[in-house]
Amino acid sequence: MKVAKIKPEDLASFNPVKVFSLCFLFSIFISFVLQFLVIHQTGAIGMIGGDPTTAKESFTAFMSDYETAFRTFKHGALRGSMTGILFVLPIFGINALFEKFSWKYVLIHGGYWTICLGVMGGILCQWA
Questions:
Q1: What is the DSSP letter of 58?
Q2: Taking residues 87-105, what's their average pLDDT?
């Protein structure tokens, strides 16, 4: 609270149902985009327009060779964490510069989202 400059009285209007409902909705949005960053085969399916029955033989050969390649929790966690470090952390850094927040604030929030995206990426990559 100190780093984010939040006072206890600021939390008086906290509505947990609203906050957690919106957090759940926003997490679904994030996972929808994150799947394209952590699952390589999603890009291949997108290149053919999404309908594998109309794809050329080269697509079928590619998918038979690489259908489950790099579909592990470890690979998804790596790519999700990289998204956190190389995309989200700089966004927090830029905002903190203009809002005059400390680097501690950036590292707390950037670290949190790096861990979240790592776990989310791992789950998406292995089980999606």
A1: H
A2: 94
